[in-house]
Write a structure and sequence with these properties.
Chain A: InterPro entries: Ribosomal_bL28 (IPR026569), Ribosomal_bL28/bL31-like_sf (IPR034704). Chain A: Keywords: Ribonucleoprotein, Ribosomal protein. Chain A: GO terms for molecular function: structural constituent of ribosome. The structure holds 2 protein chains of 2 kinds. Chain A is α+β, with helices and mostly antiparallel strands. Helices cover about 45% and strands about 10% of the residues of chain A. Chain A has helices at about 10-15, 35-45, 135-145, 150-155, 155-160, 165-175, 185-200, 205-210, 215-230, 235-250, 255-264, and strands spanning about 60, 70, 80, 95-100, 110, 115-125, 130-135. Chain A is flat, with a radius of gyration of 30 Å. Chain A starts with 9 loop residues before the first helix and ends with a helix. Chain B has 2 domains: about 15-75, Ribosomal protein L9, N-terminal domain (Ribosomal Protein L9, domain 1, 3-Layer(aba) Sandwich); about 85-200, Ribosomal Protein L9, domain 2, CATH 3.10.430. Chain B contains 5 helices and 11 strands, in the order βββαβααββαβββββα. Chain B has helices spanning about 45-50, 60-75, 85-95, 110-120, 195-200, and strands at about 5-10, 20-25, 40-45, 55-60, 95-100, 105-110, 130, 140, 145-155, 160-170, 190. The longest helix of chain B is centred in the N-terminal third of the chain and has 13 residues, at about 60-75. Classes of the chains: A alpha+beta, B alpha+beta. Strand 4 (about 95-100) of chain A pairs parallel with strand 1 of chain B.
């Protein structure tokens, strides 16, 4: 059999084979470290436990039998509808599963959807009020952090989830790094706000702020545009014209002068 | 994983939990609540909607507590005599005080007449707080019926407010003047020419 000639089995090969990651394919391999850091904060880090009560410790004992059991804090799989990006849900999302409403009856499919409210939030740094869709948890988090800006700046991207919150955070960071130009009319207030929020700026470099809060496609577009701007082709006509002028300079300037004299 | 692995049980509905109270510090005087630098503890929803979003207050963080403590020490005299004085003044300035006087017996308008009229419309005003118009008003005189003047009331010996007054001649039986619908909404001529300018600025009730 031909297959018997192989030194390793297909299964072994598949174990050792490591597929290319997201950041190793095509133009994505040129994405800067700053964006990778944001991506890690957004998609790799584990979000806070919102839909289950995490248990502490590593082991627990069954009260009845005395059996030792491992504690597994497995997060409930969540559904992220499109609408999540239009509001700030504070880490809440839709849970899809089943309910056992009665021990004798069959389980029933059920969606647990967070209670959404529309309210006004105030951003000190941006000096605006925003009408956004929120949950009770969001408002509680805003109170716990003593303000909307503090909440956005202190919370990692994996807990903010929504694109709206990330974009606002990006805008706030840009605003702070520029020294709050929106408060230019009131230098006293400007200084007060910069003092209050400057601690957050220390954890970002200017490059990281530039790449913060961009979705995957936005980041790819940005790097593609940068690449295009760097390797802008020079039209050949410009090169030929330059060459011609050089040649003329080398021998023809006198001629040109002569012809000018002749005309006069 | 099969469907039976995704059967969930609701342990706690966090949306129905009682709202905790929230401590805030007022940035300015708010009638009915407190003056600048006061710490209030309110239901979080009320504190958020009424004070934090409009920018009337800030969260009572340790830094803010320190910042507003120094303010409370430096300020000496309060701007308002009480938390509710502004409301009282606004109510008084919007009203039309109907002073009911006798149509048959002769009289002279005195502060106790005004005090009684105030009491009839729900305001307890002591006589020393009422400043009468400069002219002496005597009756019965039916030409006073369509005219108005103002008295000045001092609230808590501090805030002064002009109250629009009109005299109504009262009698029983056939003597009684006919009822006029919404007479308090209708404009009237000033009784004292010097008061005309002030009366024009006081808004009529709607």
């Amino acid at each position: 059999m031909a297959s018997s000639r192989l030194q390793v089995s297909a299964r072994q090969l598949s174990r050792t084979f490591k597929g290319k990651g997201r950041f190793e394919i095509g133009i994505a391999s040129e994405l800067p470290k700053a964006y990778k850091k944001f991506w890690r904060e957004w998609k790799v880090l584990k979000p806070a436990a919102v839909h289950f009560i995490p248990q502490e410790g590593k082991w627990k004992r069954d009260e009845l039998t005395g059996q030792t059991l491992p504690i597994q804090n497995i997060p409930i799989p969540l559904k992220y509808p499109q609408e999540i990006n239009l509001g700030i849900w504070g880490g809440e999302a839709v849970v899809k599963g089943f309910q056992k409403r009665d021990p004798k009856s069959r389980r029933v499919p059920h969606y647990w959807v967070p209670v959404l409210k529309r309210t006004v939030v105030k951003s000190e740094v941006l000096n605006t009020h925003l009408s956004v869709t929120v949950t009770d948890r969001t408002i509680k988090l805003i109170h716990d952090h003593y303000g909307f800006d503090h909440y956005l700046l202190k919370t990692p991207a994996c807990d903010l989830v929504s694109m709206l919150a990330l974009k606002l955070k990006r805008q706030i960071l840009i605003e702070l790094s520029n020294g709050c130009p929106r408060y230019a009319h009131n230098p006293e207030k400007q200084k007060e706000i910069l003092d209050e929020y400057k601690t957050y700026l220390s954890s970002y470099t200017p490059d990281e702020i530039e790449w913060y809060g961009l979705s995957w496609f936005e980041a790819l577009q940005k790097i593609a545009k940068q690449k295009e701007a760097a390797n802008k082709p020079i039209p050949l006509k410009n090169i030929y014209r330059k060459n011609l002028l050089e040649k003329l300079k080398a021998e023809g300037i006198e001629e040109g002068n002569k012809s000018a004299d002749e005309i006069s | 994983m099969k469907s039976r692995h995704f059967v969930y049980d609701l342990i706690q509905d966090t949306s129905s939990l009682p709202q905790p109270n929230l401590s805030i510090i007022l940035k300015e005087f708010v009638p009915g609540y407190g003056s600048k630098g006061d710490t209030l503890t309110l239901r979080s929803n009320e504190a958020y909607k009424k004070f934090l979003v409009p920018g009337l207050a800030v969260y009572a963080t340790p830094e803010n507590v320190k910042k507003y403590e120094t303010y409370k020490i430096t300020t000496t005299e309060p701007e308002h005599s009480s938390l509710y004085s502004e409301r009282t003044v606004s109510r008084l300035s919007q009203m039309v005080l109907e002073i009911t006087m006798n149509k048959t017996q002769p009289w002279k308008l005195e502060p106790w007449h005004v005090r009684t009229s105030f009491r009839k419309s729900g305001f307890i005003v002591p006589e020393y707080a009422i400043e009468m118009p400069p002219m002496e008003i005597k009756g019965p005189d039916l030409s006073l019926q369509e005219k108005e003047f103002y008295v000045t009331v001092t609230v808590n010996n501090k805030e002064k407010v002009n109250v629009r007054c009109r005299i109504h001649h009262w009698a029983t039986g056939l003597e009684r003047l006919p009822w006029k619908e919404f007479h308090w909404k209708l404009p009237a001529e000033p009784l004292i020419p010097e008061q005309a300018e002030v009366l024009e600025q006081i808004p009529l009730p709607k």
